[in-house]
Amino acid sequence: MARRTPREVADKWKLATRLVRGGTNRSDFGETCEAIFMTSGFRYDNAEIAEARFKGEAEGFTYSRLGNPTTAGFEERMALLEGAEVARATSSGMAAVNAALMCQLKSGDRVVSARALFGSCRYILDDILPRFGVAVDYVEGSDIESWRRALATPATVAFLETPANPTLDVIDIAAVCDLAHKAGARVVIDNVFATPVLQRPFEFGCDVVVYSATKHIDGQGRCLGGAVLCRRDFFDDYLNQYLRHTGPSLSPFNAWLLLKGLETLDLRIERHCDNALSVARFLEGAEAKGRIRKVSYPGLESHPQHNLALAQMSGKGGSIITIEVEGGRAGAFALMNRLGLIDISNNLGDSKTLITHPASTTHQRLPAPEREHLGITEGFMRLSVGLEDARDLIDDLDQAIG
Prior knowledge:
Blueprint (H helix, E strand, L loop, with lengths): L6 H4 L4 H7 L25 H9 L13 H14 L3 E5 L2 H10 L7 E5 L4 H13 L3 E5 L4 H7 L6 E5 L11 H10 L3 E5 L4 H4 L9 E5 L13 E5 L1 H15 L5 H12 L1 H24 L5 E3 L9 H7 L7 E5 L3 H11 L4 E2 L9 E3 L11 H7 L5 E5 L5 H12 L1
Helix pairs in contact: 2-4, 2-11, 4-11, 5-6, 12-16, 14-16
């Protein structure tokens, strides 16, 4: 195998170059497209080399659960994109979240978390961690005083999403990192809504970043994948052995698809954001006319954390909009069922525009009072704006709103 471009050289590349060239490791055939190494294991020239690799005394692959050339290419490209020392791929976004938390927590530890989270993240914090003696305290994510009060007591981890799924709460990353570190906590951020193109949490002091690569990184609804990014010491002390022995590994084929997705990520995110802003402005006009109850989008000045969102997210609002209509679940379902172009789906970050009803899908496990507290009402919907012509999306929403 040819050598990869040295990290000190690749670190100097601009974003678009990192997305196309980062982590490239060509075989002796000199292929221009990354190869897919569909193998579970690897052979050794002699027994001594096998021993040395398993001891970590020699470079090379041993088993695709532990590492694979195609997966390693995706990991290196993600690390370059995010500015992380280490990236490790996982089989899904939730595998990444679970690994980032479970690898470092033990009985007696405490997690302080923003209340607004993806439903499966809430399940880990509400149901799984307490079984192992880990305490979890929730705060109102966008209220820094809420964080300050909670982190006045020592903690092990501070966990958040910003913007949050699905409420689009925007959290001051730098402020939370400062408070968390003073409390002895590491900060773990799910950065999926913002994407690594718009928001780089390590620059604000974050310790661990997780992604569902299924979303914008693939961006075309083809495969599952995730990633955990961190410093070398965190990887060595916590993450490495956890991943090695629990096996949430990404398949080489999915890693290859995600590599292809990264090549166009910045181009797609630009279009996602432009479309979302156009659609959000239309919906804001519909709200002003009383056609819908409420629209929320970080790129709109009406969003309560608009200035913070643009400061943290490279001046863009992202691809996700929320809508609330009158009539509760029946009103939301009626609107969704009248859509002709936009698809009903619980995924997001796809090239196709998708809409979902969180109260009956992604967040249906949450008790109704907690959903109401978060603002996930029965009339609330999450819209993931895709790459179609924004005028067609607006036309479809216009007729569906009625």
